[in-house]
Protein: Initiation translation factor 2
Organism: Lonsdalea populi
Amino acid sequence: TGIDELLDAILLQSEVLELKAIRNGMASGAVIESFLDKGRGPVATVLVREGTLNKGDIVLCGFEYGRVRAMRDELGREVASAGPSIPVEILGLSGVPAAGDEATVVRD
């Protein structure tokens, strides 16, 4: 099917181009999907691009904002932080952001 060859080509290109993600600093990323859960409230799945997203951070997602009350990984486990290329569900936003919105951590 060519999947293995594609993955090998991507790994080779990333080594040649020396692609590195920035792990330090305030996180930014993109909202992949979001929905309103009956028991948990607004839930947004965010893919972190750079920095580290921590529980307790104040996040701005499009027109919505809030403090990250809880984060879950793709397996539904609670996590305290998420680095680059890690998708997480975040809870604690004021409303449901739109898919594609930029998610940015802001200072208090």
Q: What stands out?
A: Residues 22-106 form a domain with the Elongation Factor Tu (Ef-tu); domain 3 fold (CATH 2.40.30.10). The CA atoms of residues 48 and 85 lie 5 Å apart. Residues 3-16 form the longest helix (14 residues).
